[in-house]
Amino acid sequence: MAQLAAGNRAPAFTLTDQHGKKVKLSDFKGKQVVVYFYPKADTPGCTTQSCALRDAEPDLKKMKAVVLGISPDPPEKQAKFDEKYGLGFTLLADTEHTVAEKYGVWGEKVNYGRKYMGIIRSAFVIDATGKIAAAFYKISPKDTVPKVTKVLEALG
Asked: For residues 9 and 132, what is the distance between their CA atoms, to the nearest angstrom?
């Protein structure tokens, strides 16, 4: 699993959001983008992470940043997750995990001794030129907002 690092060009993607609309990373050219990958909508860690980003969104907007959440869940499940918690930002369905693979976040996981392939919880800050400003692999749901905020503040 190749990992991205600061300075790499962010891999382009087009995915379907929770409203059935196609969204491209290039739609956000000129803005800073926080892209976070989460394993499964409406599970404890993913809810903690997503709600923290929801709560931080006013501050993130002041830093000219938009939030994009990506998981393997289909758009309908993303929509229910958004509605249940009032997230209010774009959630993208990567059902074939092609984008997750491009970002190096699809890998082997172990749960109760069982090995399987899945999303490695991660967050990326992409600068206004489309380059990775920071990559956080295996990030804790509680650390996502403080870490991405620090990077966005440094970008100005």
From this structure: 6
